[in-house]
Amino acid sequence: MTVLEDTLRANANEVFWERLSAERLRYLAERDAIVLVPIGSTEQHGPHLPTGVDSILSTEVCRRTAELVAKQQPIVVAPTVWCGLADHHVSFGGTFSLRLSTFHALLHDLCRSILTAGFRRIVLVNGHGGNMAGLSALQQELTRELGIPVATTTYFMECLPEIAAVLDDQNCIMHACEGETSMMMAIASEFVDRTRLDEATGPHFDIVGSLRPSLKRSRSFHDVTSSGVAGVARRASGAKGLAILGAAASTLARKLVSGEPWRTSATE
Fold first, then answer.
1. What domains sit in the chain, N to C, each tagged with a CATH number?
2. Share of the chain above pLDDT 70, in %
3. What angle do CA 62, 68, 72 make, to 5 degrees?
4. At what angle do helices 132-146 and 100-116 cross, to 10 degrees?
5. Calpha distance 244→28 (Å, rounded)
6. Half-sphere exposure of residue 190, counting CA atoms within 13 Å on the CB side?
7. How would you label 52-85 residue by residue, b for 16+ Cβ within 10 Å and e otherwise?
8. Contact between 61 and 69 (Cβ < 8 Å)
9. 35-60 per-position pLDDT tens digit
10. Which of 17, 87, 163, 181 is packed most tightly, with the most Cβ within 10 A?
11. Quick check: 210 and 157 in contact, CB under 8 A?
12. pTM for the complete prediction?
């Protein structure tokens, strides 16, 4: 066995781009590996959670998805995009936000770098509700500009029935809610302030309804909830979080292995 073969075998189970050598990444690109790009946000998440929730969770879903997919085909998880479209959270403090044009330019250049490295299958895996509309529009722009089909998804939208079955006080992911708090308890419990769970409550937010075309305007999240929370976190648990993460990863993995993102048309 050659030195190169020894090196490639040693890194066979690693999925994170930044932990791999350029040599290993060239090897994966030659084998048409899928590249997942976690996209999150750095923004307020109520009194009990850190600002990095969306980035932490999208990264974890990508890791779990990649470990499932890697059993059947090569896959890589790119470094996480930790900043997105979060103007509606700025009034609470602790929030970074990009202009849509900056978000577009950033994603374009990151995808171009992945393309230049030899990869042809890119999936942007979003974990922040505020990015959803922008990504939906940018998906077509990026596909046209780069000449390859760039796929996008929001991980918690992949498994809405499973999430509804797990949670007690809501039927979908909201914000700093039972769902997000549960997932953080499952993978980063040291960052959850359990002493403030009773304060982590706010009006319910229909994320599915928010995506329907209708008469609407932009609103500050502070106008929606004074606590910075949408939903109720008090009955969050690590077990619920593991169930949601598992459902999101397994659903996305099945679609990737089946080739679904590359069978659909650019207009879907």
1. 3-262 (3.40.50.10310)
2. 91
3. 125
4. 40
5. 29
6. 0
7. bbbbbbbbbbbbbbbebbbeeebbbbbebbbbbb
8. no
9. 999 999 999 999 999 999 999 999 99
10. 181
11. no
12. 0.92
Name 30's Cβ contacts closer than 8 Å, sequence gap at least 6.
118
Torsion of CA 97, 99, 100, 103, to 10 degrees: -60
Please give the structure tokens belonging to residue 29.
Answer: 């690109």
Please state, rounded to an integer, the average pLDDT across all residues of the chain: 92
For 13, 38, 51, 178, 244, the CA distances from 241, given in Å and listed in that order, are 24, 18, 18, 9, 5
| CA–CA gap between residue 253 and residue 226 (Å, rounded) | 37
The 3-state secondary structure of the chain reads: CCHHHHHHHHCCCCCEHHHCCHHHHHHHHHCCCEEEEEECCCCCCCCCCCCCHHHHHHHHHHHHHHHHHCCCCCEEECCCECCCCCHHHHHHCCCCCCCHHHHHHHHHHHHHHHHHCCCCEEEEEECCHHHHHHHHHHHHHHHHHHCCCEEEEEHHHCCHHHHHHHCCCCCCCCECCHHHHHHHHHHHHHHCCHHHHHHCEECCCCHHHHCCCCCCCCCCHHHHCCCCCEEECCCCCHHHHHHHHHHHHHHHHHHHHHCHHHCCCCCC
Length of the chain: 268
Angle formed at CA 151 by CA 74 and CA 122, multiple of 5 degrees? 35
Query: Is 169:138 a contact under the CB 8 Å cutoff?
Result: no
Let me know: does 163 contact 156? Beta carbons within 8 Å.
yes
Residues 224 and 238: their CA atoms lie apart, in Å, by: 27
Q: Mean per-residue pLDDT for 244-267?
A: 88
